[in-house]
């Protein structure tokens, strides 16, 4: 049986040593470089992960607002986007509206029984005492295409949709118990 020739470590002592024992330890300078490279790699991974998480969170915050305000208030609805709309298209529409109305946000209509089902509602910032007040704010925004929507968790309140054209309907623009006195016409 042939044996392998002895390694340099074995030839001097006649005893087999492990590879780790036979190789010299890395110099302090080499260890420092290795630690530095590992720090850079780990730092890059941490930064990339944090950036991705932040962008994902920021994107969802820019469009969706899960809670809008208390039930029993009115909002200005700038647009309704069917839930079947592609999300990129939906986000583009919201971004366009945000250019015209800073602070506009997206709400899921299914969280409010008084809103039309299966849609996203783009709303202007603010809450209003009645539909007339919300329509007045709509006019201040320079738009005559928005509507006033009543927020509640009662399906019977879906009829409270206040529109400017041709003339606001007092029965649709004021829910019983609204906080304001009758608006002059």
Notable characteristics:
185 residues; alpha+beta; five-stranded antiparallel beta sheet; 6 helices; 5 strands; 40% helix; 15% strand
Description:
The structure is a single chain. With 185 residues, this protein is of the alpha+beta class. Helices cover 40% and strands 15% of the residues. It has six helices and five strands; from the N terminus they run αααβαββαββα. It has helices at residues 8-13, 19-22, 28-63, 87-100, 131-140, 170-173, and strands at residues 73-82, 105-108, 119-123, 147-151, 161-163. It has a five-stranded antiparallel sheet. The N and C termini lie far apart (112 Å).
> What best-fitting shape do the alpha-carbon axes yield?
rod-shaped
Number of helices: 6
Looking across the biggest beta sheet, what order are the strands in?
2-3-1-4-5
Number of strands: 5
What is the ordering of alpha helices and beta strands?
A: HHHEHEEHEEH
Largest sheet: 5 strands, antiparallel
Radius of gyration: 33 Å
Uncertain residue segments: 56-67
How many angstroms separate the termini? 112 Å
Helix content estimate: 40-55%
Give me the secondary-structure category.
Answer: alpha+beta
How much of the polypeptide forms β-strand, as a percent range? 5-15%
pLDDT average, as an integer?
Answer: 76
